[in-house]
Specification:
15 helices, single chain, mainly alpha
Length: 330
């Protein structure tokens, strides 16, 4: 039996004879289709209201994605020539050379610094956040304690980054005597990662059907084995998504690093002390933008473009990992 194509209500109203005959819609000129579309939506107040609602939703959707493209156009208009150029400090040199005299070289120090800070933050923040979420979701009963922890995490997620910087300066730099540098900056960023990863991990764990846990326990598995081998594995794509969202947030942070990381035109060589002072891409963008020397401004745009490319690459990797693990689990 021949399979009929799916057709919308508008198609059914516009081509009733074709619908009844079971034949697909013919090629209709664009002007005819537009006039038919308008005639359909203006034949009553109810249809016209529906049209206005659809237009309003479409405009909202455009406004949601418009900032991304506006920012991309802005940074690409100036930064593209630096990222893919062939002059001094451009192209590959932009990523692999240090600034040098007059800051005419590349920004290798900033890229290495950002990746180093993100690595320290991830090593410190991810295990605490994920294991904390597992404990809250799998080993505590719903009540005041869980509600208090979740409320604190929500409040922590809304605290401005400048407050995290002041906190890192007071606790990590001064009280713990770490001094400014890679560890102080990375640990401050780790505090910023915790609420995002904690809450997204909780949501991912809650999405795992209770029947999976019950089946595992019924087969004789311990609670820990069930949690690790069944629940966490099933929730892994959601956990990865939360981790990457957290990385996306901290990679673009500037304010906390002003207080805690210091700044350097070289890559960090130590974890503590003066040799651990580290630059970051966002802070370098800020410094180059306010610098009166005009030849640094294109480099700031190029650094912003490169930062967007890094975040885009991370998202692609996250999606690949998520899809890969989802297929394995399914």
């Amino acid at each position: 039996m021949e399979e009929r194509p799916l057709r919308s209500c508008e198609d059914e109203e516009a081509y009733p004879e074709e619908s009844s005959a079971g034949v697909g819609p013919p090629e209709i000129p664009l002007t005819t289709r537009i006039s038919t579309y308008l005639r359909t939506y203006t034949k009553s107040k109810r249809h016209f209201t529906d049209l206005l609602f659809k237009i309003g939703l479409g405009l909202c959707a455009l406004l949601v994605i418009a900032p991304f493209f506006l920012i991309l156009i802005e940074v690409s208009s100036t930064g593209f020539a630096v990222v893919f150029g062939s002059g001094e400090g451009e192209g590959l040199e932009f990523f692999t050379t240090y600034p040098g005299g007059g800051l005419t070289g590349g920004l290798a120090h900033a890229f290495i610094g950002t990746l180093s800070l993100a690595a320290v933050a991830g090593i410190a923040g991810i295990p605490i956040s994920v294991l904390g979420a597992v404990y809250i979701n799998e080993y505590t009963e719903a009540g005041i304690v869980r509600s208090a922890i979740e409320f604190a995490a929500d409040v922590l997620a809304g605290i401005p980054s400048i407050v995290f910087g002041a906190f890192g300066l007071a606790l990590i730099v001064d009280v713990l005597n770490f001094g400014k540098g890679l560890m102080a900056g990375g640990l401050t960023l780790a505090f910023m990662m915790i609420p995002t990863i904690l809450r997204t991990t909780q949501e991912a764990l809650r999405a795992v059907p209770m029947s999976l846990r019950e089946a595992s326990l019924a087969l004789g598995a311990t609670r820990w084995t069930t949690t690790w081998q069944v629940t966490v594995r099933s929730a892994f794509p959601g956990i990865v998504t939360g981790v990457l969202l957290a990385f996306g947030r901290i990679i673009g942070e500037t304010a906390p690093l002003i207080f805690t990381a210091g700044n350097s035109l070289r890559a960090p060589t130590e974890l503590f002390g003066a040799g651990s002072w580290v630059a970051s891409v966002p802070y370098t963008i800020y410094l180059y933008t306010i610098d009166p020397r005009p030849y640094l401004h294109p480099k700031a745009h190029a650094a912003a473009l490169a930062l967007m490319m890094i975040v885009f690459t991370i998202d692609l990797i996250a999606n690949y990992i998520s899809i890969k693990f989802t297929r394995r689990l399914v």
